[in-house]
Amino acid sequence: MIMDQIKYIAPEISLLCFALLIIMLDLFIANKKALPFIAVAGALLSAFFVLMLWGSQATEAFYRTIAIDQFGLFFRLLILAATVLVIMASHKYVAKFQRFQGEFYALLMLSAIGLMLLVSAINLITIYIALELSSISLYVLVSFLKDKKSSEAGLKYLILGSVASAVLLYGMALVFGMTGNTCLTCIADYMKGMPAVNLVSVPALLVGLVLLITGFGFKIASVPFQMWVPDVYEGAPTPITAYLSVASKAAGFAVIARVLMTAFGMPAWLHTDWAVIIAVLAAVTMTAGNLMALLQTNIKRMLGYSSIAQAGYLMVGLAAIGMGSQGDSTLRSGLLFFLLSYTLTNLGAFIAIIAISNKIKSDEIADYTGMGKRAPLLAVALTLCMVSLTGLPPTAGLIAKIYIFSGAVDQGLLWLVIVAVINSCISAYYYFKVVKFMWMGEPASADKVTSSWPEWLALALCCIPVVIIGVLPGAFIALAQNASVLFGL
């Protein structure tokens, strides 16, 4: 029976085999240029196995630890796409690691395996193991530059991540102690039979739920659990910063949505109560992220605080899901559509930054002055991504915000949408500050900033869909709606 279910984790197994292959080849070949191509091939093969499962009936496997549903498959594809794009954009950057290029690609793939398992896990123990698998790899990758900033970033990420993991585990222990189960659907069955009328009447559940939200809040960089973001984003290798900002965040939202909707989706008072908590956190998160981003002079720190603000917008969608009917797939599809748009936009911005910063050896926004003359295509791509992150036409960012905010309004969260719109206006200042420096100043050097064809391809694969989604979003909205099928709902 177990052997019949191996096909459900074939994507992860194939990616693991390629990660081990890269480690072995790294020991015996002197020319490391083949390693990124092998890594990309491994991720594409893994994506092929995911697509083979697409459209299959939602089911569970391995003793109710893994769910095979459209929701999980969508996020597995999203994580693999982010992994491929990061590898393509970083092959020149990774050359500076010299003897450790194989380890870089292998650790990145191992982290992807952990994230892929995380978005499909329907058991608290499996969730924790998958989370730690991805996190341990990322702790190492953040400190990979081995300089002062990178080492400090890695240490901070390790310490704060360990604390968050301990808090999450304690929350899981409380939920297990109360329900006697670690299976999410089993926990849901217990919750449905509870006679309580609100969370306050069940202190153990309240504390356990708060601790779970705290642990997952660290993963998605929600205030007040975001203190690691600016230093880690600045000190980590830029490709890893890009990966953290999209793949890790997407997986974090996937798992918190699955846990809240599946285990704590019923009765009605329960999902309404946690929706209020998420809504308050969303308002604080987007406001704090945007206000702190206004003060930044380093583009990686600025995008770090921007990612905090974006997490707040995503939490608006999560709060709307909690306020609505748990069987309403339209609200879930809004969250998926926003994550798809955000992934493409943020990766596009970081790929342009990787190409530019690798040439000018600086991440200071002021050093981007005149980049429109030195690298016009890169400047156009970065400008497009800044426009999309702001939420202006004709980009994916506008459609994503309309989709997710309209759902929140329908669920009675007009006050939260007003806060989100105000914050979007605030964000325009620091996003367009970068655009101003690139197009309205004289460059410090006349040297052209060049890029390799893998970087151009990765940038095109991000930026072209950003425009297409902004102009013709129908097919992508349909994709998000098809991917919103969640096991048990």
Descriptive report:
- The chain is mostly helical and 489 residues long.
- It has one domain.
- 74% of the residues lie in helices and 1% in strands.
- The chain is built from 19 helices and two strands.
- The protein has helices at residues 10-28, 34-53, 70-90, 101-120, 124-142, 148-179, 184-192, 203-220, 229-235, 238-263, 268-293, 299-323, 329-360, 371-374, 376-390, 396-410, 414-439, 453-471, 474-482, and strands at 59-61, 66-68.
- A two-stranded antiparallel ribbon has the order 1-2.
- The longest helix has 32 residues, at 148-179.
Supply database-style keywords:
single chain, 489 residues, mainly alpha, two-stranded antiparallel sheet, 74% helix, globular
Q: Provide the domain count.
A: 1
Q: How much β-strand is present in the residues?
A: under 5%
Number of helices: 19
Helix and strand element order: HHEEHHHHHHHHHHHHHHHHH
Oligomer: single chain
Distance between the termini: 25 Å
Shape: globular
If you average the pLDDT, what whole number results? 87
Largest sheet: 2 strands, antiparallel
Number of strands: 2
Summing up helix and strand content along with how strands pair, one would put the structural category as mainly alpha
Query: Regions with pLDDT < 50 over 5+ consecutive residues?
Result: none
* Strand order across the largest sheet: 1-2
Radius of gyration (CA) equals 21 Å
What is the helix content?
A: over 70%
